[in-house]
Structures are given as C-alpha cells and as structure tokens.
Amino acid sequence: MLPKFPGDKPRDLSKPLEQIRILVDGRLDGQRLDLALTTVLTWRSRASIHRLIDGGLVQLNGRQSPASRRVRIGDTIVVDVPPNPRATPDPGAGVEFPVLYEDQWMVVVDKPPGMAVHPSGRHLSGTLLHALHRRYRNPDDPSRDVVPRLLHRIDMETSGVVAIGLDEQFHQLVSRQFEDRLVGKSYLAVVHGRPTPDEGTIDRTIVPDKRSTVRLKLTTTDAPDADGLSAVTSYRVLRSNARYSLVELHPKTGRTHQIRVHMASLGCPLVGDKLYGADETLFLRQIDGTLGDEDRRQLVLDRHALHSHSLRFHHPMLDREMTVVAPLPRDMAALFCDDRA
Fold first, then answer.
1. 18 pLDDT band (50/70/90 cuts)?
2. Which residues are catalytic?
3. Which of 152, 212, 319, 336 has its CA 20 to 30 Å from the CA of residue 120?
C-alpha cells in the first residue's frame, strides 16, 4: 500500500499520484535517505530514487538533502512524483467489475482475476481501489464525498468476493469481525488430482520453504516445535474428472498463501499455480516476463484457479446476517465442461 502520512485526508486515487509524504518511524530511523525511500517505495529501484533525489524532487524536513543523509524518527520526507507521460489522467478508467451488493454503508464486488486490489509495487493504476475511488470520491463536494475502505484483500490472480466499506463507522465495526474471525469465508479451487479423503481438515503449520530459491515461498510442517504460523483449512471435494477436482475450502485462519500451500501439501496443487505447482521456475519466468507457450500449456490457466466464493458477516447497520456469493468464473468452470478431460 502507498504510505499514509498521519493526519492527512484519505488520498483520492481517482487522480494521478503527485506527491508522497512519509513520516520517519522506528523502522526507518538511522537509515540513509536513499535506503529509507527504497524501503517505503518498494516499486522503485534504488537508481530511480537517486534520480529523484538528484533532480530535487525529494525534501527532508523542507530542504533538499543528499542521498547519504541519515533520517531520524519524526523527520518528514516529501517526494514529488514526476508525471509519467504514459500514465492515464484517470487511474481508474476502464476498470470494470460486477457489483454483487450495494447499500449506503458498503459495496461488495466480484473482482476479476488479474486485477490488483490496491495500489502497490508495479500496480500504481488500474486497481480495484482506483476504480472505486473513481466511482465514489467527490472531494470538491464534501457532502457527496465517499471514501471506499477495503474490509479485506485477495491476491491479484484470485477472483471473487471483495467487500468494501463506504461508511467509516461501518468499516470499523465489520473490520473488527474480520479481526475476531467472526466472518465466514468460502473459496472454490480447481486442483490437480483428487484430495484423499474427499472431505477433511488440514491442520499444518506454515513455515518458510528453505529448500526453495524463491524467498517468499512457504511450505508446511507437522513438527510440534516448528517456528511458524498455525493454519487450519477445511475442505470438501464437490466434483472431479480424470484430471481435476473442484474443491470448496473454508480457511479457519488467514495465513499468507494458506489455501495454496495446504492443497499443495496434499499433493493437489491449484491449477495454474506457478509457485506451488510442479515447477517453481515458472514463477521466476513470470516475474521476468519470459513465460513461453509450452509454460502456459503446462499451467493450463494463466492464473491460479482460486475464487473467493462467499462472505458471511453481520451487517451492523441493518442488524442482520448477510451472505454474498460470487458465481464460479468461466475459466474455472470450463475445466469441467468435458468430463473426459
């Protein structure tokens, strides 16, 4: 996520990013200015940050400073973002998504696969949140200005239900339900093979995969003294054919990559999963932009076959339980059109 300066009004993402303000905290204390910016502006290379500093676009406490200057807790860094000649003046333009439910307090959408939920890294436009700001923000008229706030997130490749608060009090109340694990979530996944048994609970701790060359890859362990995060997922096979199974999953915890890691631990990785499938070098080639036709044939789908199917929560303003459902997307359903597959 883009950094937010304490006290600033919510940034209007319907307009291009022009300036970033950063309050130095304990994480950045004592770092060189260039390294501190590299830590926060993760989507920029150190070379590009040096160009910003050398070009006079970075100020530390109101003054231009060299890249080697040490920052301290409480310092303010201001970065003027140079205009991108290829950037759209409307970062949310052309972003489309079905609305599953909407009232004055919230909206629930069916996010398509391949769309980032919020701006970060290389995705500084064209995200779901940009499009929501385009739909609801009106900062020139405070009486009509609505700030969309995400209640939860799903990965860029994952499709399905995403809930957004349109009212600050509603957002706080429902966010607490997420924190207290009172929200019911169900996912649908298409996996290779068929899990055995057809129904069960996976209770396996998730730890970094030290055997992998990919730093962010995770794995599971049953070691009782493992230094990892406990993770529990219940699953049920809904349908199978000769190659794939459609599985309903209910994560009881919310660990990073939990469903993908747990299904891979059963020997049934998600179709299209470049990181937890049979060959993790597919993930590296995707990052490099060098995936070939044979790679795509091996993956079957261009994205991992995971869909946020339903969300169940208590609507505090209407004082009733709500369940919102997003139908299985076509690319996943197509894997079962021919049972001889």
1. confident
2. 155
3. 212
